[in-house]
Specification:
The chain is α/β, with parallel strands linked by helices and about 350 residues long. The protein has helices at about 5-20, 50-60, 75-85, 100-105, 145-150, 180-195, 200-210, 220-225, 240-250, 285-295, 295-300, 305, 320-325, 335-355, and strands at about 40-45, 65-70, 90-95, 110, 135-145, 175, 215, 235-240, 260, 270-280, 310.
């Protein structure tokens, strides 16, 4: 075929192609926007701890992010919550205990809420009839003793608070200052509950005469002065959960704890910790869900090995090491939250005058 004819055909094809209606490409559907996660801020004391997977479970179930605001010890955290109650730093406050409960309620920092699980919790833990402060956990402050010391010295361990006045136990006890230490304050309250407001200072005078040692904090008492950790004092004010903690944190595995707890004759004071929804929270519904979660077995069963406290939900199972080695007293010393709130500072000042000066 003549090359001119071929060229003409090619030009014709190109012309027809340029006149063709262009093919419309399919439009892409835009992905739906991802909803921004909300945030729940929980103010706590410095000892708060939670397993990452437990916190993640709440976040995933509620499409939210948790922020834990550690605000000092229980008293310091409460002060911050009170000072900021008009414009709260958080949505929820956890870690308030019964030594500060009445002050928090008097200051009106919480909104009432009645979670479904509250019906299952023992009345002994429900200290606010209006459900502003809701019980989460408890722990007992008691004298602990070094079992090996008493075996090596062929001496029976003291059985109750009264025994600590006996001459055979002279120079054996270390306690924390109630003005600077939560367990120190709890032990002071135990002596008030046992001996009464008219005689508790006489008891402390007897302890001083029996060579009492006072230190500022639990860490110094337990890990410096206590004979189980290299100190010279075989009796220390600590917790009913300290023996299982000894097993868990032992450098080499042990079958039983080297320490035991004195619980007879109301020798312990029970600390109950509470949670509440802070007034003016912008996340009321989410705050309710968090409280429900804190009272659920998922959170309650996580607490013992995180914060060494006991769950208030009777459906929560204790870890085996707690079931085997923790000590829960049958009776504890009783001082009402109202009396604690009214007389706390007076009792601490009177104690200071009697014991330290």
């Amino acid at each position: 075929m003549d090359h001119k004819i071929l060229l003409s055909i090619a030009l014709l094809i190109a012309l027809l192609a340029s006149c063709a209606v262009p093919t419309q490409l399919p439009t892409q559907t835009a992905a739906p926007p991802t909803l921004a996660k909300s945030q729940l801020t929980v103010m706590t004391h410095d000892s708060f701890a939670i397993s990452e997977n437990v916190a993640a479970r709440f976040e995933q179930e509620n499409n939210t992010r948790l922020q834990f605001l550690k605000a000092g010890d229980a008293g310091t955290a409460l002060n911050k919550a009170i000072l900021s109650k008009g414009n709260p730093l958080a949505d929820v406050f956890y870690g308030l205990d019964n030594t500060f409960l009445s002050r928090a309620l008097t200051e009106g920092i919480f909104e009432p809420y009645q979670p479904p699980a509250l019906d299952e919790i023992s009345p002994q833990f429900k200290l606010d009839a209006q459900n502003r402060a809701l019980p989460v956990d408890y722990g007992d402050v008691c004298p602990n003793y070094d079992k090996n010391y008493f075996v090596e010295h062929n001496l029976a361990a003291p059985a109750n608070l009264q025994d600590l006045l006996k001459p055979e136990y002279k120079g054996l006890l270390v306690v924390e200052n109630p003005a600077t230490s939560s367990p120190g304050l709890a032990f002071l309250l135990a002596t008030i509950g046992v001996f009464g407001t008219d005689k508790y200072l006489d008891y402390w005078k007897g302890l001083v005469a029996n060579d009492l040692l006072v230190v500022n904090d639990w860490e110094s008492a337990y890990y410096t002065e206590f004979s189980a950790h290299g100190g010279s004092r075989p009796v220390v004010i600590s917790y009913g959960s300290s023996p299982p903690a000894e097993v868990i944190f032992a450098e080499t595995p042990i079958d039983e704890p080297p320490t035991s707890v004195i619980t007879a004759d109301r020798s312990c004071f029970r600390q109950v910790e509470f949670v509440g929804i802070l007034k003016n929270s912008s996340q009321r519904q989410l705050a309710e869900k968090w409280i429900d979660f804190m009272l659920s077995p998922a959170f309650q069963e996580d607490m013992p090995l995180q914060m060494y406290v006991f769950p208030v939900n009777p459906k929560a199972k204790l870890p085996p090491v707690f079931s085997e080695f923790a000590t829960i007293p049958e009776q504890t010393a009783q001082v009402s939250p109202e009396d604690i709130n009214q007389y706390r500072e007076q009792w601490i000042n009177d104690w200071t005058e009697t014991v330290l000066r």
